[in-house]
Amino acid sequence: MGKIIVVTGRGGTGKSTFATLAGRYLAAPMLLIDIDPDQSLAEMLGIDLEKEKVRTISDALYDITEERRHDGGNPIPLHNRMEYLLNRECLYEGNRFDLLVLGAKLTEGCYCVPDDLIKAIIPKLANHYPNVVIDSPAGLEHLNRKIVSDIDDLFVILDPSSKSLKHIARIKDITHQIGIRYGHLYLVGNYNFDRDTEEYLGTTGETYLGKIEYDADAQEYNLAGKSLLELPENSPAFSSIRGILSRVDGIRDS
Ligand SMILES: Nc1ncnc2c1ncn2[C@@H]1O[C@H](COP(=O)(O)OP(=O)(O)OP(=O)(O)O)[C@@H](O)[C@H]1O
Ligand SMILES: [Mg+2]
User: Fold this and answer.
1) Mutate which of 10, 16, 18 to test ligand 1's pocket (most atoms within 8 Å of Cβ)?
2) Residue 12 C-alpha to ligand 1 middle, in angstroms?
3) CA of residue 31 to ligand 1 center, whole Å
4) Nearest CA to ligand 1 atom 15
5) CB burial class (10 A; 0-12, 13-18, 19+) of residue 20?
6) Is the whole-model pTM more than 0.70?
7) Residue nearest to atom 16 of ligand 1 (CA)
8) Which residue in 12, 120, 180, 206 has the most C-beta neighbors within 10 A?
9) Domains of the chain, with CATH numbers?
10) 191 lines ligand 1 (CB under 6 A)
11) Helix axis angle, 15-25 relative to 236-246, nearest 10°?
């Protein structure tokens, strides 16, 4: 079974940038999954889902639900039909990585059905890839949704605010309370981190892996909708993320 890596943190800390550049560093082939309704990961990876005719899970699910309403109950169970569509229509297949995007729900109500589907499917898909990297929406709500309950490496991208530091304790509480298991919790400082915050984190007893350097190009590429995979090898963001990940035992050769 492949390694399941989840990237989490508060809003705008740099989660998607980290997930994208981690995708560039880790062993291929890998599966990237975007569970943020904002779905910015594809753009950061330089993938135009519409052009590639790849659909989000929520879109495919919406169509199946509509179909079922009109045809008086398709005898094929929803999960089987959806699993078929996930492999045929929702999976972007690239050379180094494949991508799945959860998307935004289009119907009223909760995310229960798409969440349940993706929950059931992640462990199965993980069998086909050495690494599965999941980019999360801001905050902790996605943990409550328990989309992934068995995580190998949980990366928390932090800004230097006191709220961010409290966030670490809350992640530990929530995962414990709702039964999300993780092998390792890794803290990563974002590009706003200062030396004092880094020193403080070193005293928390958690594993602090280092800071992502400020990278004007990364910001500019993001604004221009240009793929972060085109950043130079020695760009500050990619170099620092490479350094951070190289401190995690066995992450590259799994
Ligand atoms: N190392 C960096 N240097 C400079 N700017 C960065 C860096 N990393 C991320 N940014 C910028 O910070 C902003 C937020 O980054 P990103 O979208 O990766 O964060 P996020 O945590 O995924 O946000 P959200 O919570 O909205 O999903 C973007 O404008 C991005 O270009
Ligand atoms: Mg993001």
Assistant:
1) 16
2) 5
3) 21
4) 14
5) buried
6) yes
7) 14
8) 180
9) 3-246 (3.40.50.300)
10) yes
11) 70
Task: Reply yes or no on whether the pLDDT at 75 is more than 70.
Answer: no
- Shortest CA distance to 158 belongs to which of 169, 145, 146? 169
User: Mean pLDDT score of the chain, rounded to an integer?
Assistant: 88
Q: With contact defined as beta carbons under 8 Å apart, do 172 and 204 qualify? A: no
Nearest ligand for residue 138 CA: 1
pLDDT in tens, 176-193: 999 999 999 999 999 999
247-250 long-range contacts (CB < 8 A, ≥24 apart) are 247/209, 247/210, 248/153, 248/184, 248/186, 248/209
15 CA distance to ligand 2 centroid (A)?
5
Residue pair 27/133 in contact by the 8 Å Cβ criterion: no
